[in-house]
What we know:
Elements (H helix, E strand, L loop, with lengths): L1 E5 L6 H13 L4 E4 L17 E4 L7 H11 L2 E4 L1 E6 L2 E6 L4 H10 L4 E3 L6 E6 L2 E6 L9 E6 L4 E6 L4
Parallel strand pairs: 1-2, 2-3, 3-4, 6-7, 7-9
Antiparallel strand pairs: 1-10, 5-6, 8-9, 10-11
Amino acid sequence: MKIGIISDTHNDVEMVKKAIEEFKSRSVDLIIHAGDLTSPKILELFKGLPARFVLGNCDLDAEAINARAEELGLGCVDTRCELTIGGKKVLVFHGNDIPFFREAVGSGKFDYIIKGHTHTFENYVSHKTRIINPGSVYREDERTISVLDTDTDRVEKIKIDIE
């Protein structure tokens, strides 16, 4: 199964549109957003797509984001989300709760932990858990997203063209 991973979009509509086009061109089965949407308007871009979201530290109007996500039929808008995807256990959270992150990695409960927050791409294995941070499409010199293939355990880092 192919999972498109994005985080820290901070209302950058044009970059999110580009990211979604990259995901579509790679035929992803699901899109996961690891937080910092910043407002409900970003959710509109995911309408009709298989997508799940978690809230980040900049998602201050969680109530409005949750309400709009529900209206659009988008799921898992909370600070943390546990999913089973392609037979693999996946934890999604924004990444700003370091003690929780350490506990989750050490638990051995998850095949994958998807997070954001730092705006920096990460892809490594710790305690048999692959940790993935797609980076950010917002105000960075290198704007990135990722695609995880759970069948091959391969993570592709995708650079989004700023222009």
